[in-house]
Amino acid sequence: MRSSSPRASTDQTPGTRAPSTFAALGLDERVVSAVRRRLHWRAPSPVQSSVIPSAVGGRDVVACAPTGSGKTGAYALPVVHRVLRRYDEAVGGGMDGEVMRALVVVPTQDLAQQVGGVFRALLADTPLHALVLVGEEGDDVEQSSRMRLLSASVVIGTPAVLSRVLTTGAASSLVVLVVDEADLVLSFTDHKEEVEAVVRLTPRTAQGILVSATLDEEVEQLRALALRQPEAVRVEAEWDHQGQSDARVQYWMARVQSADDKLLWLYTALRLRVLHGRMLWFVNDVASAYRLKLFLDRFGISSAVLNADLPARSRAHCVAQFQAGLFDLLIATDEADVAERRGFSAARGMDFTHVAFVVHVQLPDTAERFMHRSGRTGRAGRRGSVLALVASDAEEARLWRLLPASSSTTMPPLPIAPEALETFRYRVEDALCACTRQAVREAQLQALRDEILHSKTLQRRVSGNDELLRRDLNALQHDRVMRPARASPHLAHIPEYMLKCAALREALPANNGVAKEPVKKSRKKKKNKKRSNRGARQLDPLRRLAL
């Protein structure tokens, strides 16, 4: 599994002829069955068709493919195939079949949980298990993790955890080492040394699979360290060699006058059904995310914040609720410093399914982040839309710089009738008055307090009843209103006098969000405190005096 230059290079494009079924890729029947019954994948993607045959044959592979191209399946399926075959050989030879045979290194805790879910689905109908190790500290916990390594066939974890708990003895049985999102792994300050430490512990005979969205100098160095005569597979899907954007994804731009007008545009677009379906909105910091949520709460629009400051379990549960359709609007951040400190990035690795719109409420700082944010939609052959909001000439110029230099991608304006915007301006400005810095800070603290309360309960349940644990997780409502005392239910309705704009009348279904009657405020009836004259005289001591 060491050294040297690529043995072959295979460039694939979405139009290249490839096997149309997973069975044709040489996979074990149990793997093919799990793909169909558990994962519901219909056909292999281009990167899967290119990588799987080589990986099944035991060859080292370096795969470079963009987000949403199916890289996880490209390595997960051959890994499970090889693990199952080794298990069969061990059982046939009278040995214990359940030992660690595959190690998957991922950059973030959230991606580890997601990849772990794929492996658990693939192994669900077999006697083998997958183990996810994330964010564990302390001697006792590390010792426990080392013991658990011996009882799982596939182990998934971040470099920080694996470098602490992996030992030479435990790694001696490895047959496959995978480094997923290698460019992101190496972009974190401490991860490079930790990944190299993990690689050095693996046997020289272990197969290596390196997966990345880009191939920079650091990834090339890791390839030289971890792989021997790898077969290189490069799949272009986001932008092809001529710079043409993927036809499945439509790019749009909306020009407004100010930062607050971005929220006016977004609210109007939601009312007009211009924005619809499952949506992922990106901002550049957590405070902006909570301000946006507070704004939406004022109008009764359900949303949730994917907060990097919360534990991985809570973030994973938030994503699971979003994927399950409990709410359709998820607000996320992808701050570079937070990604490094917390091991979390919503724009990288996370597989958000059926996302109709990715909205750049605030533009990222690099073209790479713009590409990876946008890659959360149009995944697995589905269609999607990307919208960028700009509020100045400078911001618009920056947007064009974020596109690849060779790209011929166009971003036509996504217009909304000015009269529709002006219809809601007063309401939006009124709602923004409540979204102060203090209110945003209180919302952030409330989220942390709620997490602390639920985390204490979860800690008691982790080793206990699974049903109680599931009930406690369900109690975490990530899309609940942050400040119910300031909520304004009447703002969720549009009175008739505001429907002068024809676009609004056409967009809004009958009796849906329109208040046919003005909202009536209930008044408490005052008790009649007047007393009868007779009673008053009886209580007046002066009237009892005899003169």
Descriptive labels:
single chain, 547 residues, alpha/beta, Rossmann fold, 2 domains, eight-stranded parallel beta sheet, six-stranded parallel beta sheet, 21 helices, 16 strands, elongated, disordered N terminus
Written description of the protein model:
By secondary structure, the chain is an alpha/beta fold. The protein folds into two domains: 8-235, P-loop containing nucleotide triphosphate hydrolases (Rossmann fold, 3-Layer(aba) Sandwich), CATH 3.40.50; 249-515, P-loop containing nucleotide triphosphate hydrolases (Rossmann fold, 3-Layer(aba) Sandwich), CATH 3.40.50.300. Helix content is 43%, strand content 13%. It is built from 21 helices and 16 strands. The protein has helices at residues 29-39, 46-56, 71-92, 109-123, 139-149, 159-165, 168-171, 182-187, 191-201, 217-226, 259-271, 286-298, 312-323, 336-342, 367-374, 393-402, 418-433, 437-461, 466-474, 502-507, 533-539; strands at residues 8-12, 61-64, 102-105, 130-133, 154-157, 176-179, 207-212, 231-235, 249-255, 279-283, 304-306, 329-333, 357-360, 384-390, 494-495, 514-515. The strands form three sheets. Strands 1-8-2-7-6-3-5-4 form an eight-stranded parallel β-sheet, sandwiched between helices. The protein has a six-stranded parallel β-sheet with strand order 9-14-13-10-12-11, sandwiched between helices. It has a two-stranded parallel ribbon with strand order 15-16. The longest helix is centred in the C-terminal third of the chain and has 25 residues, at 437-461. Residues 3-9, 11-16, 237-245 and 509-521 have low confidence and may be disordered.
